[in-house]
# Entry
Amino acid sequence: MDVIFDVAKYEENIASEQEKNQQCLNLFAEDLRAAGLKDKTIAQHVGNASYYLSRFLLHYNGYTMEQGARKIGFFLGYYYISKCLWIKPANIKTTAASLKKFYKSMLDHGKIQQEDYDFLCKDIKENMDAWCADCAQYIDPDRPSPFHPGHRYC
# Structure
């Protein structure tokens, strides 16, 4: 049996998710503005969340924003390190902070469940040191890549 891929339906689904993501990013920006953050800080947090939602979740994996609360480990622990050649361990920490704020905003607006937010926070807390160590090793040209077969994300 042949499987037919409906490109029009796929593009429609992507457009719908992008619109939903943009609405969530707008809510997030409003929350940050209401908290008194400066425009530059807001832009950084929204940019980090936007990259996660659009490039990683939607286009790389086909995940929704809601599913993203449980995908942070693969993103920060592998994808972000190995695919985004500009990052350093400090970027992992700032991006994690942005995503934690984003998902807290989504929780406050009823867009995700408490369990998903708790999962995200626990994953960040338990794995941040390992992600930063893997990043430091990956960007060091004198050390072998940490992403060999058998690595927790390979």
